[in-house]
Amino acid sequence: MRRRKLRNPLALAVLATLWQKPMHPYEIAQTLRRQGKDSSTKINYGSLYTVVQNLQKHGFVEVTDVERQGNRPERTVYGITEAGRQETTEWMSDLVAFPAKEYPIFETALSLLGVLHPDEVISLLEERLEALEVRIASGWGALEKLYETLPRLFLVENEYQLHMIEAEAAWVRGFLDEIRKGELPGIEEWKAFHAP
User: Fold this and answer.
1) Is the distance from CB of 56 to CB of 63 less than 8 angstroms?
2) Which of 64, 71, 186, 189 is deepest in the core (most CB within 10 A)?
3) pTM of the model
4) Residue 117 pLDDT
5) What is the per-residue pLDDT for 4?
6) In this predicted structure, what is the pLDDT of residue 1?
7) Among candidates 196, 178, 171, which has minimal Cα distance to 118?
8) How far apart are CA 161 and CA 142, in angstroms?
9) DSSP letters spanning 143-163
10) Within 13 Å of residue 139, how many CA atoms lie on the same side as its CB?
11) What's residue 22's pLDDT?
12) Mean pLDDT, 10 residues at a time, the chain of 196 residues
């Protein structure tokens, strides 16, 4: 995997959005939101303009027009360049082909779990499991509705997210079971650590 000039996922989302047609930054943000991409990419509207400027600086997008409607301020319209299309294709190829280490906050919490008493962990994980199950049920319900109007290709990231939530819920269920039954290796030492 080659090192990218830009690594912000929002930059990739902007490039993919501009692949559809030239747009001004506000329209890019609205398109991302309308297409549901804000559920898989963190869209910080304040940094969107900076991202577009960085893409322009690297030659991945260019100004194609400046629009003015009535008394509104001018809006700069950007289009993707050939270099931007190539960067998008290569970046997407890398992301799809090569697994990358990500650092989800729950994984961080699990790595530091020993600071909490096992009984407290049971209660907290039960709460988490309940929240995950609600997200799974509502997520699949929403997805079934979306299947009625959108091709599956445009919903695969939602499917992936739901499968990841289901996998997390299954893991939490199993881990909870081990703690409850006292079968987790080292649980007695863990409890002893918290004894007064």
Assistant:
1) yes
2) 64
3) 0.78
4) 96
5) 76
6) 62
7) 178
8) 13
9) HHHHHTTS-GGGGHHHHHHHH
10) 20
11) 97
12) 79 95 94 86 86 96 89 90 96 90 91 96 98 97 92 92 97 97 95 91
Structure tokens at 136: 């799974």
Cα angle at 82 between 79 and 87, to 5 degrees? 100
Report residue 75 as tokens. Answer: 């809006």
At 68, list the tokens: 């003015």
**DSSP labels for the chain?**
-PPPS---HHHHHHHHHHHHS-B-HHHHHHHHHHTTGGGTS---HHHHHHHHHHHHHTTSEEEEEEE--TTSPPEEEEEE-HHHHHHHHHHHHHHHHS------HHHHHHHTGGGS-HHHHHHHHHHHHHHHHHHHHHHHHHHHHHHTTS-GGGGHHHHHHHHHHHHHHHHHHHHHHHHHHT-STTHHHHHHHT--
Phi and psi at residue 62, to the nearest 5°:
-145, 155
Among all chains, which residue has been given the structure tokens 């997390």?
168
> Which residue do the tokens 């290796």 mark?
185
At 119, which amino acid appears? Answer: D
Q: How far apart are CA 133 and CA 138, in angstroms?
A: 9
**Rounded Cα gap, residues 85 and 163, in angstroms:** 30
The residue type of 186 is G
